[in-house]
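Hi C.,

You asked whether I'd gotten around to modeling the 682-residue construct. I have! Everything is below, sequence then structure, no commentary in between.
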Amino acid sequence: MRPNVVILLLWLVLIYAIDFTTAFIFNKRLQLPDTYSGNTPYKGLGFDSTNITVPLRTQRDIGLNVTIDRWLWPAIDLKAAYFGNDYSAQKLSHVEELMYMGYRRLVVDLYWDPDRHTWQLCPDKLPSLSVPQKSKRTDNNNNENRMVHTATPPSPTTTEKLLLSSPRKSHNSVNSLPTLSTGHTVNKLVPLSQEDVNIGQYKCAPWYTFQHFMDSVNYYVTATDVSTAPEDTNLLFLILNLHQLQSNNNNDNNNNDDDGENESLRDILRSAIDSTYRNTSRLYTPDDLIHDRHNLTASFGLTGEEDQQIIVDPATGAIASDSAWPTFIYLMQRDIQLLVGFGSIDLPSDTNYKYLEQDRSTIFNSTQLGAGWYMNQVNLTNMEAMGWEDCARPANNTYVLPMENNETSVSLPSLQQPEPDGTVLSWSWIYMNDHGNNPGFSYNTTMKAVQCGYSPYFLKNNYTDDNNADYSVNDTAHLSDNILGTIWSWDIGEPKISSNPHCAMVQRWNGRWRAGDCTELLRVSCRHKNNPNKWILTQTYVSYDRAFSACPDDYVFDCPRIAQQNRMLFQELQIDLSQNAPQGDEMNDLFHHLFWINLNSGNNGSCWVVGLFSNCWWLTNNVNLFQKLIRTSAVAGVIVLILVGIFAWIKCARWWRYRKSRIRKNFIKDLLARREYTTVPA
């Protein structure tokens, strides 16, 4: 084999070695748990077990056409359940793990320092800062001169280098700690020490700001976007609780902005989150929602036939709504991955942070995303006291009712209508929290809350089996077990992976699903065309492919798309048992207690779809697969092209020199052949 070919092959091997090493380092950086260790039926399974990843992915895929306000979004309060008193660099460096565990809503408490003009996660005042000096420089993004406070920071520690590293060029060194992208004065304030410090009851990393937190969020959304890892792509919600620290300025000059420009939350969010490969934003904002609601047909694809509270513009005929939310697939088609909302805001009236109104164009208010006060209305303690008898009545004087026609609900019994002075909540963005409950959510209570239609909101700092168990403050593995209770679809150990086509059946005894042979003869689950909560069961037994024509008029063969719909189907199964119970030996026949739902695997056990001849959206996007390949090895590909060019140039140069030499030799040979020589005798 020629030497240049050997060298090229070695370079290709090196490229793939670099990719493998990068993936290895990435996993090491995250330090995700190897196995689930909590007291659940999944105990001992690996973090990437298909008995967990496939059910969670199935729940995502079957709900593509459900509006996002009715989805299941497990939430965690970072201050209460993750940080506690530990805001050290080590604890901060692992916050990204929560997103990979499956938490979809992170409640973040931010503290405005009126002296430093910056947002931080540490709940106490940070140490004094080095005195900045003003210098003038020209920004590379525009030609405006800006006054920038500069100070020489000490060398960062290894942990800080890890946290400060980022795919964004503007945040890859300590010297780029300030992250504003506005055309005004920027404060570049660097702590005297980069080491963790003890401040009152807290241990904090002084240099860590909200910008660094958003860099971790950016790591997650870019690593799991549609073009990179569509099988793992999901939405992420951030809820920001805003507080202000006490000022050290005795002259009470908090309103004086002469010392620098405030860090706008809007600017931090927009500068930290990378755009998509199509150069569009990953953020879905209130302005986007307002625009989409003005014409539902052009945005969400609604025609007015759906059960929506719609308004028809008489001038244009456009269908509009004040309450409609996009579906999950609508956001995925636009590469949207992040929504940010306000929770509680307790900034003083004289705060020197002046950009709340500006932020509202990017950050939803607490009412829109059901955050803040709304997330704390339904409590696990009260629901347990009610005995879980009525999902729509989580407390004596609290009721959860449909507020819009498009909301599905477990109906209230006629004798339990809301009292005049009762608290009435909507099923939209509904949460159940475990505040005040000891020991908080367990696997069973989480599953009960989810089956009722509530998203769990975790507020405890320890979810281990033994509340008195000793564990490292930086150990977050116990938090991963909480997500297991959100699996409402497939039963334990299901679906079984097989190369043969399998179809889904719902079990009468627990309402969970199992995979089986599509040729079995079973009764069929049928959903009403206009009411996703209304189900009936056929009396005839058919195979899966015959189930599509087995339902009566006004009903369709379908599967539940959200947990609440699955609960309603389960109730229908129990009613059927009391009215049409099998007799004699048939009572013990398994197939009299299994019913078809519209879900099958085709030839891929990890991809479950509704309907025949379908495929998972994340398997058919070949363009995204190519984009992933190109983006993953872009630098390596450029290196290969340069090397190939060098080898080609060397080879062409050799060939050209050889050609010129051969021409010259032939010319001299021909010249000598034409000359006549005379021999002179001695």
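If it helps when you're writing up: The mean pLDDT is 80.

Thanks,
B.
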